[in-house]
Amino acid sequence: MSCFKQDVYNCITPKTLSFVKSFLKQRSNDPAASTHLSSARVVEWNLNGIEVDSRARDELKAAVNILFRIMKYIGQFPFPKLSSKDDSEIISLTVQEFVIASVFISGRYRKLFGNDNGEIIWKFLFIALSHQSDMNFFEDDLDHLFTIPLKYPIEDGDSIAIKAQKVDWGGLEIIKKLSNLDMNQLQLQPSLFLNLTTLFLLTESIPNQKHNKMHDQFVHNLTTWKDFRKYSLDLLRYMNNDLSKDDLNSQTLSWSEFSLGMNNLLAPFVEVNLRKVVENNVLNISLPFFETSANSKMDGTGDEVPNGATTGTKTTMKENEGAGVEAQSKEETKVGNDVESSFGSKLVSISLIAYISSMLRGIGSTIEVTRFNAIKLFAGLEAGFSIRSLENKIYKWHAPTLLFVSGKRIKQRTIDTNRRYQEFDETYPKFFQANEDLLKSWQYTNDRITYCVLINQPWQNSNKKNFGDEKSLILSLEPRADYYTSLHSEILKGQLIYFNNSGMGLGFGNAQPLNKSNNKKYYPGDVSLTIESNLEFAVFRHLGSLSTNATTYFNRSRLPSTVAHEDFEDRFLITDLEVWGIGSKKELEEQQRQWKWEEQQAEARQSVNIRNMGEERAFLEMAGLVGNNGSGGSL
Questions:
Q1: Rounded to two decimals, what is the model's pTM?
Q2: Residue 358 half-sphere exposure toward CB, CA atoms < 13 A
């Protein structure tokens, strides 16, 4: 079938017309009722009256501009055309472009093209971020006739919606061109992608709820943009672990690195949060779409202002009755008490929880972690770095836990002078030769190293036998994202954890350590994390080039780069160690009631001891064992 560009666009939109109507709160089917939306307007809408540091403000602007660049490129499907290469240029979307982009972002395009073309949106995203001005597949000619393939013949009486169902969307020329395109000729700019993933990670921290609450929490979390940015860079290092924060503008990501990174970990994170930003309207993207009428106003930027809103006043979409836009005062948009700024932890934050949540989703874990179902059980900085203290705090929790361990890479001075480290090193088997360089190209002496272990089963005293199941996994959080899942084995059955309170510490992916008289020795697995008994030093080991005699409990890295086949260790001095319980609201309430009861019992016992002290002292004085002056008696 031959038709013009606009006819093709018209065939796409009926498939999602009802969705778009409800989302945009359109009050008319008249195309003249809406106009364009600029990226600058969206940023202004969200930052109005909000105190955010200048760098965060600039990077949010860049992220929204990049988002609009991607949406504009996708929104011109099936005749995509890249806009200007200038990142600072304000990008505007028409309603038609917004609608078509939403078809892809919402995932509804799969109904049109089939699941075989699921990678198409990642190609569009990569091309849009690659800044290749020559990647326009079609002439910009509205009068040119295009041929579109059909599944079924078009009849004269068919409506546009019926015609859309008869089009073979998967057979479009653009799909063929994308399939044959050598994507490796393109290079993605990680500095652009970093701003976008920071926006997505911030969105990840916001649970699905009413729109006004989601937007309030988004605005609140903007104040910690730099924390989200730090973890976003760690996520991007999953694609290329050589990315440096100081030199991002001169670095690139290849299509191979990008596609493997997306497929192995990041695709669910990007897909879910891209949809949340646009479809759930966290950024209020659709609000500045407005009716063109005599009652509309103009603000100082040259954009029109929706009816009912005043210039310089923040607005949010009304949740019920679909009544469009309603003005709210700054007091009404302040974040409520339910928005927590921190967890009372030096290590764990809202941004870190969002980071872990995104990784667990990408791995396919059934365990969900949010700021609402996590409770701190142990913190070394509060309770002391003691194996007994750790044991007392975590053994009463009967749901999954997350163990965080963080510190600084061991330096040569510690190796040469710290006797406690030397004793630990003597009991931990060496793999590398003394003359080998222990640091790989992506490892630096000043690295902050952070690992997180997901323990699905309750903690057990395991001085003789390991415990655990195959849902256990190790997450590398800093300086780069990576993950190590439990190896499926009918023999091991995921029993890969020990908690040894008799002098050998904690092991994840290790065999039981030897601890007899003066003979102590660790047996680390090829992929393992070992924490010595004083909770002072830790070692993560990854042997990827060859198999050793050690039992393998965890799978090796699936990093797209050469890391999967590398032998390396992260040895670090522990500065923070925390354990957090993950459970339902019911489990949290039951655990809190149990802790409260135990505190009351402890206070009662202390009270009894104080009351009985007088009687006990009297007997001791009568026996002459304690003098009246309280300094002891004489015989």
A1: 0.81
A2: 37
Tens-place pLDDT, residues 117-142: 557 888 888 988 886 655 555 445 44
Cβ(154)–Cβ(166) below 8 Å: yes
Q: What total of structural domains would you count in the chain?
A: 3
Same domain, 165 and 251: yes
Which of 235, 262, 278 is the endpoint of a domain?
278
In whole angstroms, what is the distance from residue 246 CA to residue 249 CA? 8
Q: Judge whether 531 lies within some domain.
A: yes
| Confidence label for 296 from pLDDT (cuts 50, 70 and 90) | very low
Q: Which CA distances in Å does 601 have to 377, 594, 604, 607? A: 19, 11, 5, 10
Q: Which domain holds residue 208?
A: 2-278
617 shares its domain with 570: no
Question: Distances from the Cα of 554 to the Cαs of 13, 452, 527, 551, in angstroms?
Answer: 48, 14, 6, 9
24 lies in the same domain as 147: yes
Whose tokens are 């210039």? That residue is: 311
Looking at the fold, whether 65 and 210 belong to one and the same domain comes out as yes
CA distance 523 to 329: 63
Interval 168-204: pLDDT, tens: 777 777 777 777 888 888 899 898 899 999 999 999 9
Residues ≥6 apart with Cβ < 8 Å to 129: 66, 69, 70, 188, 189, 192, 193, 196
The Cα 524–Cα 521 span in angstroms is: 10
Q: Indicate the burial class of 210 (C-beta count within 10 angstroms; 0-12, 13-18, 19 or more).
A: exposed
Dump strand ranges (E) for 175-268.
187-188, 253-254
Same domain? For 400 and 542 the reply is: yes
Domain membership flag for residue 341: no
For the chain, percent helix, then strand, then coil, each to nearest 5? 40, 20, 40
Looking at the fold, whether 490 and 622 belong to one and the same domain comes out as no
